[in-house]
Write a structure and sequence with these properties.
- With 114 residues, this protein is mainly beta.
- Helices cover 0% and strands 41% of the residues.
- It is built from no helices and ten strands.
- The strands form three sheets. It has a four-stranded antiparallel β-sheet with strand order 2-3-4-8, with no helix packed on it. It has a three-stranded antiparallel β-sheet with strand order 1-10-9, with no helix packed on it. It has a three-stranded antiparallel β-sheet with strand order 5-6-7, with no helix packed on it.
Length: 114
């Protein structure tokens, strides 16, 4: 059975290493925060939940990258994550990682594959 896809945002809304776009997904009957970013030319999406204690990563809506636009950073604890994989690269994430969501880009839009 083919997966359905839902529009998260336009492709233009995700600048390389810049602000991300927040959206929500359903998990176990509840709506939870997620986000999409662009890194190395590709769109990536994750649940907005730090592997350390589950707080949202962004310090202001859409601010997920460090000051160089190279790593995702938890604003509460400083945990660092690889933008392409969500893997923990340092800090109190204890080797865990972000939960990656399946996305694709088509016809100028970033789509969540549900």
């Amino acid at each position: 059975m083919a997966r359905r896809a839902r529009v998260i945002c336009s492709s233009d809304a995700l600048p390389e290493g810049g602000d991300g776009v927040r959206f929500e997904v359903e998990r176990t009957g509840a709506r939870v925060s997620a986000f999409a970013i662009r890194f190395e030319g590709a769109a990536h999406a994750y649940l907005n939940r730090c592997a350390h204690v589950g707080v949202e990563l962004d310090w202001m809506p859409g601010k997920f990258f460090d000051s160089e636009g190279l790593l995702l950073i938890c604003s509460s604890h400083g945990a660092l994550y690889d933008p392409a994989t969500g893997a923990c690269l340092g800090g109190p994430c204890g080797g865990g990682g972000l939960e990656k969501l399946a996305v694709e880009e088509r016809d100028g839009e970033v789509l969540l594959k549900e």
